Amino acid sequence: MPPSPKLTSPENPDIPESQEVPRAKLWKKRVMLLVQLIVVALVVWGIWHNVDKAIDQVQQQNFSFQKLRWPWIFAAGLLYLLGSFPMSLFWIRLMRAMHQKPTTYSAIRAFFIGHLGKYVPGKALVVVLRTSLVQGENLKRSVVATAVFAETLTMVSVGAVYAAILISLWFSDRQLLLWLAIGIALAASFVTLPPVFRTIVLTLKVSKINPEIERNLAGLNYPVMAWGWGANLFGWTLLGSSLFAVMASIPDADSHLPSFMQMFPLLAATVCLAMVAGFITPIPGGMGIREFVIMEMMAPVFGPVVAVVSAVLLRISWLLAELALAIILYGIPASAPTTDNTSSEIASSEEDPAQNPA
């Protein structure tokens, strides 16, 4: 009986097909490893650039780090992470409303590790990190990325509205900052209206990547967005408390820090507007923009030196908290990924009551 003919690769007839497939997989692994190394290098560079510039700003004020009450710096970082947690839950809720089934731990892990992407120019790496790290049953990356944008825009919208209300009630003399907050609040809030957001996504021709995107978007309705507003309001309140912890760490600020309740409107408005203004710029980490807003808001009360130091300490405490948590979460991997970009499986209306648009 004659031997069976060997199957060969159409690209290279001299190489058996059984050898060509493993080689293709090997090259794919090498490319993915190279991409991961580039991403890590960009994140490390972005973080180092931000820390180095922040420390330089403090040194220019002739301020000594030895004066600081370090437990308060630790508390500031912890409050920042706690304030971000409700926002991560909203991202999960958005994905599930759009018929995705991410695992809770992998989504929270992806959310916080993805935070480091904002220190890279353009901030697009945030979306890349989140969509690549989140895991679950039959996830579509196009829907996961859409949820990232919806969550981020809602965070910006709530922060800007929060800042506009506080500034208009207590600091109406800061006209420039007030109109900045109002402008961002109106623009971001309009974009996050469910019908408007759906129209924008469909206009961007996402349906070419995912033909079922319109059906996915049907789950993004007013009750879901209202839940997100509540979660973000709670989160922004904790972020404002984080700035109070930073101020409490600076001895020179004691005389101007009578009580938490008296200072909270100023601190919350400052954090909200500073972060929102930083987010809408392509500058990595909003470097310079956040510091400008904090100085404009804080200097009339605490003086220019304390204002600059507080802005820098807020950045450092938040960055180190993000980095520490990202390292911990990265070291605790999620279960094996089951993401499927081509799956058309969608949860039924009985399993997901949030699918009917308002």
Give your account of this protein's structure:
There is one protein chain. The chain is mainly α and 358 residues long. The chain has one domain. Helices cover 68% and strands 1% of the residues. It is built from twelve helices and two strands; from the N terminus they run H-H-E-H-H-E-H-H-H-H-H-H-H-H. Strands 1-2 form a two-stranded antiparallel sheet. 41% of the residues are buried. Mean pLDDT is 80; it is low at 337-358.
Summarize the structure.
This is Lysylphosphatidylglycerol synthetase family protein. This protein is an all-alpha fold.
- Whole-number mean pLDDT: 80
Q: Return residue spans where pLDDT drops below 50 for at least 5 consecutive residues.
A: 337-358
As a percent range, the share of helical residues equals 55-70%
Spatial strand sequence of the major β-sheet: 1-2
Q: What's the order of the H and E elements?
A: HHEHHEHHHHHHHH
Can you summarize the main beta sheet? 2 strands, antiparallel
Count all strands and give the number: 2
Query: Any idea what the shape is?
Result: globular
Number of helices: 12
Rg over CA atoms = 24 Å
Tell me the span between the first and last alpha carbons: 71 Å
From the helix content, strand content and strand pairing, which structural class follows? mainly alpha
The structural domain count equals 1
Residue fraction in strands: under 5%
Protein traits:
358 residues; mainly alpha; two-stranded antiparallel ribbon; 12 helices; cell membrane; transmembrane helix
Secondary structure elements and pairings:
Blueprint: H1 17-60, H2 70-97, E1 101-102, H3 104-114, H4 125-133, E2 136-137, H5 141-170, H6 175-191, H7 194-203, H8 213-217, H9 222-248, H10 260-279, H11 289-302, H12 304-330
Antiparallel strand pairs: 1-2
